[in-house]
Design goal:
The chain folds into two domains: 47 residues, Homeodomain-like (Arc Repressor Mutant, subunit A); 155 residues, Tetracycline Repressor, domain 2. Helices cover 65% and strands 0% of the residues. The protein contains ten helices and no strands. Helix 1 crosses helix 2 and helix 1 packs across helix 6. It is elongated, with a radius of gyration of 19 Å.
Length: 221
């Protein structure tokens, strides 16, 4: 590949993920990433501050689009329903990033420093969701708790998605996690017989057609 070719950022992200899986995060250098991508180290540092940040390049996009989905939810939507729209956006972004997200998960799970940084990014996402809910006139405790629940659901669903069958879309796994949450709030364990659940229509991840209307795709996390 010539250095003039477009999508340098994406090429660097893919090269880094491949090398981190092959060699390990600690043993991979910026020079090796740049060489694998067919670019220079100078180009690398135009896009990323260090080799850790390659793994978290999509965090800003994820925050912005998830917060935007909360803001765009119908006026009468409950805080949890508005946050379900954000989860749908996250599912779309993750599905579009596909194999890169799986590679990224493998690398982060193997490195304590990266796991800590991941928690910081998830905390930032929670703050962004809570602020978006406050702008909908949701009180502080409700906004904060709803945002934390949404991030917890996303974290569990991503873990199941990256370690499970490739063919299952992220939206389905998010729905599974929301079903478990509904059961817990109704006083049932996930393995207990199903009974009536209050507000059955709530907290559903929107369909793919609705998700596509929420905004342009971007790199997730």
């Amino acid at each position: 590949m010539g250095r003039w070719e477009p999508n340098a950022r994406g090429r660097l992200e893919r090269a880094a993920a491949e090398l981190y899986v092959e060699r390990g995060f600690e043993r991979t250098t910026v020079a090796e990433i740049s060489r694998r991508a067919g670019l220079t180290e100078r180009t690398f540092f135009r896009h990323f501050t260090d080799k850790r940040e390659v793994l978290f390049a999509g965090s800003v996009t994820l925050e912005e689009q998830c917060a935007g989905a909360v803001a765009a939810a119908p006026d009468g939507a409950s805080p949890m329903d508005a946050t379900a729209a954000a989860l749908s956006t996250a599912a779309r972004l993750l599905d579009e990033s596909g194999e890169h997200v799986r590679q990224r998960r493998t690398v982060i799970d193997a490195n304590a420093e990266l796991r800590e940084r991941e928690l910081v990014k998830l905390a930032s996402l929670s703050l962004a969701l809570a602020e978006a809910l406050r702008r909908r006139d949701v009180d502080d405790p409700t906004a904060e708790l709803t945002a934390e629940i949404a991030v917890a659901v996303l974290k569990v669903a991503v873990g199941r998605w990256t370690n499970g069958p490739v063919e299952r879309p992220m939206g389905e796994l998010l729905d599974d996690c929301l079903d478990v949450l509904r059961a817990l709030l109704a006083g049932r364990g996930a393995g207990q017989p199903r009974g009536p659940v209050r507000r059955r229509v709530a907290w559903r991840v929107p369909s793919r057609s609705r998700a596509r209307a929420l905004g342009p795709p971007g790199s997730a996390w």
